[in-house]
Design a protein that fits this description.
Length: 341
């Protein structure tokens, strides 16, 4: 089969012919129809999630969608022919946290799809059956690539931060793959949204998707703009950029009972927190790690019911995925990209 293969953590993928995998007991084989391309894939390729030499060579891509074409022994679900999407974390299913539907916190985590096992940058993908969840009728394969991470992660954030009516949610990095769906999810949970990003096309897109205001992070009057939208401060800040600069910016603009949600895992990044301010304003800082399988299924339902619009702005064929990587690195891709077969 054709695949894009990574030979070195921190390197770029190359087009290759590799042998098609066959499913063992408890596994299923999927003929890939589309696979999401976003910054998380680039983080995986960089070795930010894990960089064990024994995991190389590796086929990246965790947001895969396709049809089940073969199943191994003892697989009841998914069924042959069913359209499925991939769940990102290789969880055990047996520990206390898995049983409580906190699979990303699994005590026996084996790693991630596209890092510890091959992903969807290929014609076929073999995964444990429990990592394959059904795609609802009426959702196209390309649209579905946004569900398992770019839409499910904002659903987890919204539940974790208790977003609701009367909240003003600030999304930093709002035009990116996860950010653009966070804007929609916060609106769906009843909040007002202030979107922060850089390029004008991204700011316009998030305004069109329901952000009450969209401001340029480098604009000199960004503080004044935020005060005019949220005079009492921001109630939830969601930082998808995760630099020292954006973290300090988010903390500075939180209002009373404000919650800062962290999602990035860049090594070595830290920020200062003043206990005096945290106590006086009752601020909270919350880490948010991916989403449960239930949340991924709920995200799929929200897309099928047209409550969330997947934003996949550009699709390419498998051999041209490097072009999308270049756009992501340059910060010029709106929302998600995808490979389409
Ligand atoms: Zn577990």
């Amino acid at each position: 089969m054709r695949a894009q293969v990574l030979h070195q953590w921190g390197g770029e993928v190359t087009s290759e012919e590799v042998s098609t995998p066959s499913p063992g007991p408890g596994e299923a084989l999927v003929k890939v129809e589309a696979c999401g391309v976003g910054l998380t894939v680039l983080n995986c390729m960089k070795g930010n999630m894990s960089q064990r030499p024994e995991d190389l060579p590796r086929i990246p891509g965790h947001e895969a969608v396709g049809r089940v074409v073969a199943v191994g022994a003892a697989v009841e679900s998914p069924r042959m022919g069913e359209r499925v999407l991939a769940y990102f974390y290789l969880f055990c299913g047996a520990c206390d946290l898995c049983r409580a539907a906190h699979e990303p916190l699994c005590r026996n985590l084996r790693g991630n799809v596209g890092v510890a096992c091959d992903g969807g940058y290929a014609e076929y993908l073999k995964l444990p059956a429990e990592n394959l969840l059904p795609v609802p009728e009426g959702v196209s394969p390309v649209a579905a690539t946004a569900i398992p991470d770019a839409i499910a992660t904002p659903l987890h954030v919204s539940r974790r931060a208790g977003i609701g009516p009367s909240d003003v949610v600030m999304v930093v990095g709002a035009g990116g793959g996860v950010g653009i769906h966070m804007v929609q999810m916060a609106r769906l949970f009843g909040a007002d949204v202030v979107a922060v990003d850089r390029a004008e096309d991204k700011l316009k897109a998030v305004r069109d998707l329901g952000a009450r205001a969209a401001v340029d992070f480098h604009s000199p009057d960004i503080a004044a703009a935020l005060r005019s939208v949220a005079p009492a401060g921001i109630s939830v800040a969601v930082d998808f950029v995760g630099t020292r600069e954006t973290l300090a910016f988010c903390l500075e603009h939180l209002g009373r009972r404000g919650r800062l949600v962290l999602l990035t895992t860049f090594p070595g990044v830290a920020t200062e927190v003043a206990p005096r301010l945290m106590v006086r304003e009752e601020l909270s800082i919350l880490g948010s790690r991916y989403a449960s399988r239930w949340e991924v299924s709920e995200a799929a339902r929200l897309v099928a019911e047209r409550k969330i619009t997947p934003v996949v702005s550009e699709t390419v064929e498998l051999a041209r995925v490097g072009e999308l990587h270049a756009k992501l690195r340059a910060g010029t891709l709106l929302g998600r990209g995808a490979i389409a077969f």
